[in-house]
Predict the structure.
Amino acid sequence: MAEPAANAQPTPDCRARMEAQWSREGRDPRALSRQFDIAVHNNVAVPTVGAVLDLLERAAGLAERAGD
């Protein structure tokens, strides 16, 4: 299996715009980094056995309904 790609992060300009927007909205701009870390962690593709079995089960159901 290939090594996972580096975690994507927004560009410094994008981060600055988002921090400014958060400040205008009264939110803590320091929390932005935590939000990015959570988003990256939740979007890393690390399939578990259960997830693979679930996908196979769904694919089998779709194939059965399609008549394949």
